[in-house]
Specification:
heterodimer; B: Rossmann fold; five-stranded parallel β-sheet; elongated; binds iron/sulfur cluster
């Protein structure tokens, strides 16, 4: 692990001295200026950290460029079941930061960042649809890819590829009823 | 015939009666034939192209294969003007109600071609999100095999529908059996030499 952390993470550690961010580069590179860093936050502190990252002008992450879910079931050395990853980009300061939140069954819940980045709406709906991670305070948390009435969360690792017979409950048009 | 009717008088037609009956039969036949002939050569397809099979459907419509030779070039994008649904490509379960709605909106008499492995069986997409054969939810008349079917095969499918129209007349889809089970043979048979690929 390279020794030097980025200025943004230094700021974060100064601001939230009670949180262990466990900063680490996503990939270690020879040219350290090209490394992208990742910090871990608990779901309870997420909103405070995210608002700081968005509003402090030394951070100024105007853009939430991605938000994704991960299921760590049977992943080697993983302690938590679900992860939600935020990829932040600051256009004015030209830097990036990755933020990870981990949650567990039976009630995986993460606060919604829609109030900070409005573009998170559909991405959070997608993570809810595919992984069943619930985003509290989301304005409109409906399924986005699968259909209404679908029960499961298909990107969970314990969901079988061929489904659990969901396709059988559809209306059938026969020649008589047409 | 035979013993049962032996006691009754056989029905005797006069020569004139005989001629009029034959004549009206002939007229009926001609009328039916001509109507069937015109209808079978003016099928208006509803292109329900959801995936890669749709590209082959477009090729069938283009000049090289020219579906206009069979009078079926008038692809309409409103189901109310169509009588032949060509279901080309895999259908996601979320799309199934749309497909059913379009089918219900088509005017009778109507026919359905299930084009390609995916529309007929789900093909390679054996997953929770894809319908494993539209015939589970819709009455299909002709199955066209292939992944994707070549344009010739699709044309063979259109011709199979034409033969249906010719033989059966324009009876409504309600009066036909569910799933005629007509499968079009592939036009090209590929022969693999023994020991190839080793
Ligand atoms: S049958 Fe083949 S070509 Fe047609 S939709 Fe399926 S995968 Fe695509």
């Amino acid at each position: 692990m390279s020794a030097k952390i980025t200025p943004v993470i230094e700021l974060l550690q100064k601001q939230f001295s009670d949180i262990d961010f466990a900063p680490a580069p996503l990939l270690e590179m020879e040219d350290q200026s090209k490394e992208q860093w990742c910090v871990k936050v608990g779901a309870d502190k997420l909103m405070a950290v995210m608002s700081f990252l968005r509003s402090d002008e030394r951070c100024a992450f105007e853009q939430l460029s991605d938000l994704a879910g991960v299921d760590y079931l049977n992943f080697p050395n993983a302690k938590d079941r679900y992860g939600v990853t935020y990829s932040l980009l600051s256009l004015s300061n030209e830097h990036r930061l990755w933020v990870k939140v981990f949650v567990n069954d039976p009630n995986p819940e993460v606060p919604s960042v829609v109030s900070i980045w409005h573009g998170a709406t559909w991405m959070e709906r997608e993570v809810w649809d595919m992984f069943g991670v619930r985003f509290t305070d989301h304005p409109d948390l409906r399924r986005i890819l699968t259909w209404e009435g679908f029960e499961a969360h298909p990107l969970r690792k314990d969901y079988p590829l061929t489904g659990r017979g969901e396709r059988e409950n559809f209306k059938v048009i026969t020649r008589e009823s047409a | 015939m035979g013993l049962a009717s032996a006691g009754s008088m056989p029905y005797q037609e006069s020569k004139e009666e005989f001629l009029t009956t034959k004549l009206s039969h002939l007229i009926d036949l001609l009328r039916k034939q001509s109507i069937n002939w015109s209808r079978k050569n003016s099928l208006w397809p509803m292109p329900f192209a959801t995936a890669c099979c749709g590209i082959e459907l477009m090729a069938t419509g283009a000049s090289r294969y020219d579906i206009a030779r069979f009078g079926a070039e008038v692809m309409r994008f409103t189901p109310r003007q169509c009588d032949l649904m060509i279901c080309a490509g895999r259908v996601a379960i979320k799309t199934m109600p749309v497909l059913q709605r379009i089918y219900m909106q088509m005017a009778e008499p109507k026919w359905v071609i299930s084009m390609g492995a995916c529309a007929s069986t789900g093909g390679v997409f054996d997953t929770y999100a894809v319908v494993q054969g539209v015939d589970q939810f819709l009455p299909v008349d002709v199955y066209v095999p292939g992944c994707p079917p070549r344009p010739e095969t699709l044309l063979e499918g259109v011709m199979a529908i034409q033969r249906l129209v010719d033989n059966e007349g324009m009876i409504n889809s309600k009066d036909r059996e569910r799933g005629l089970g007509l499968v079009v043979q592939p036009t090209v048979q590929v022969e693999v030499e023994k020991g190839a690929g080793k």
